[in-house]
Design brief:
Layout lengths: L10 H7 L17 E4 L2 E4 L11 H14 L4 E2 L5 E3 L3 E2 L8 E5 L5 E8 L15 H6 L7
Antiparallel strand pairs: 1-2, 3-4, 4-5, 6-7
């Protein structure tokens, strides 16, 4: 994935990063994870730093689950989100669903809840939670 904020990677670093087929993420402490309690069980979105390295498998899972769970469809010319070509989405407004973790330890997009129902202890940043939420699913340490 390349974007205007992607850093070029030198050959030695690329060799280090790609020596295995695993994703790499740096996580925030659990006290900063968005969470919800359902039927006496705590579920959390594992909050991660913005820079992630995804394996091909995890990138494909993210794209598939994003298409199933998101109502973000268009960007306006100024970069703000637009839903159904009409409604502008405000910062902190979440129009996607967080998947529960399946028995295989990965996100199950058929079992999810609206992201807006999950309480965040601090700031909400889509790019700091969406990858773990849609690749791994809601984490339950209980």
């Amino acid at each position: 994935f390349l974007s205007e904020s992607t850093l070029p990677v030198k050959r030695r670093m690329r060799e280090l990063l790609f020596r295995n087929d695993l994703s790499d993420m740096c996580f925030f402490p659990p006290k900063l994870w968005p969470s919800i309690q359902i039927a006496h069980t705590n579920y959390s979105i594992v909050k991660h730093h913005q820079w992630v390295i995804l394996s091909h498998r995890d990138a494909a899972r993210f794209v598939e689950n994003w298409q199933k769970s998101s109502t973000y469809r268009f960007f306006s010319h100024d970069g703000s989100y637009v839903v159904n070509r009409k409604t502008q989405i405000k910062n902190g407004d979440y129009k996607w669903r967080a998947a529960f973790m399946g028995t295989d330890g990965l996100a199950n997009a058929t079992s999810s809840l609206p992201r807006s129902e999950i309480r965040s202890p601090g700031t909400r940043c889509l790019d700091e939670e969406v990858f773990t939420a849609l690749i791994l699913g809601l984490h339950s340490p209980d």
